[in-house]
């Protein structure tokens, strides 16, 4: 009897190839595409003038030479900041500023990059702290997805975009407006309500942190028994990659896409 080969584990570049280039920059995403990543992960936040930009923290202090909350700054303010040298200066004494490594990236520009990638590249977009914005993050996100024809499944193959969040409410808003866009419920802890492998209503994909996978593989099996694909973040160490592979998860989200692909024999 022959067994069907399971599809390969999807390798998702977390904030781009963020070990090699400053996170969430064009350079980090170009590198991830060159490295062969199957998908790109990004965090989206709304600026004061309504643009979705890729910044992880609430404030720009850690990843730029500026200060303040993204939500209090306009796109032009962010465009004037340097989002790269905090990493590059540390790593190279011969550092020279390169706009692709130092400029803030909008979601729109990332969607253009993916459209021009020359091969299918999926997107895993995380809405950050969307409860403060009463639906504006999701509204703007879906507007952009629609403009790029990504709000509905393609004629063939899997949906090329999914929306992730720690907020069940945010995922609910996305599904209400675009029911076919897959949603991923991110988890840092296993709450008593989820212990038996149940996710918030309507969510198909589980997004546990690597710590949950290490400490509670039984929970991962319960998610799988309940029919949920599992996408794990952030998986950088070879032992963790192996554990995810042994458990048969569907996606590994990593800062090191090249190394993970090579460990998985790709
Ligand atoms: O991919 C999910 C993961 O990115 C969630 O954590 O803090 O890196 O956004 P964080
Ligand atoms: Ca994220």
From TrEMBL:
Q: State the coiled-coil residue ranges.
A: none
List the SUPFAM superfamilies: PLC-like phosphodiesterases
Which residue ranges run through the membrane?
none
Q: Which PROSITE patterns match?
A: GP_PDE
Which terms does the UniProt entry file under GO BP? lipid metabolic process
Q: Give the matching Pfam families.
A: GDPD
CDD domains, per database record: GDPD_like_2
Which InterPro entries does the protein's record reference? GP_PDE_dom, PLC-like_Pdiesterase_TIM-brl
- According to the entry, every stretch annotated as the GP-PDE domain falls at 9-264
Q: Any idea which GO molecular function terms this record carries?
A: phosphoric diester hydrolase activity
PANTHER family in UniProt: GLYCEROPHOSPHODIESTER PHOSPHODIESTERASE 1-RELATED (PTHR46211:SF13), GLYCEROPHOSPHORYL DIESTER PHOSPHODIESTERASE (PTHR46211)
Name of the protein in its database record:
Glycerophosphodiester phosphodiesterase
User: From which source organism is this entry?
Assistant: Streptomyces globosus
């Amino acid at each position: 009897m022959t067994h069907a080969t399971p599809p390969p584990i999807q390798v998702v570049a977390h904030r781009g190839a963020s070990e090699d280039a400053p996170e969430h920059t064009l350079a980090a995403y170009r590198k991830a595409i060159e490295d062969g990543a199957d998908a790109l992960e990004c965090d989206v936040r709304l600026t004061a003038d309504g643009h979705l930009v890729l910044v992880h923290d609430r404030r720009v202090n850690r990843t730029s030479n500026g200060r303040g909350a993204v939500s209090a700054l306009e796109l032009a303010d962010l465009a004037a900041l340097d989002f790269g040298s905090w990493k590059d200066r540390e790593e190279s004494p011969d550092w020279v500023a390169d706009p692709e490594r130092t400029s803030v990236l909008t979601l729109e520009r990332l969607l253009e990059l993916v459209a021009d990638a020359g091969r299918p590249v999926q997107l895993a977009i995380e809405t950050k702290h969307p409860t403060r914005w009463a639906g504006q993050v999701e509204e703007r996100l879906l507007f952009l997805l629609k403009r790029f024809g990504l709000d509905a499944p393609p004629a063939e193959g899997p949906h090329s975009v999914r929306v992730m969040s720690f907020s069940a409410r945010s995922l609910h808003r996305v599904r209400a407006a675009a029911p076919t866009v897959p949603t991923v419920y991110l988890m840092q802890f296993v709450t008593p309500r989820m212990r038996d492998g149940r996710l918030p209503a309507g969510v198909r994909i589980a997004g546990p942190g690597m710590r949950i996978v290490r400490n509670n593989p039984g929970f991962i099996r319960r998610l799988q028994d309940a029919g949920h694909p599992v996408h794990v973040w952030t998986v950088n160490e070879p032992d963790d990659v192996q554990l995810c592979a042994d458990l048969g998860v569907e996606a590994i989200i990593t800062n090191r896409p090249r190394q993970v692909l090579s460990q998985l024999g790709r």
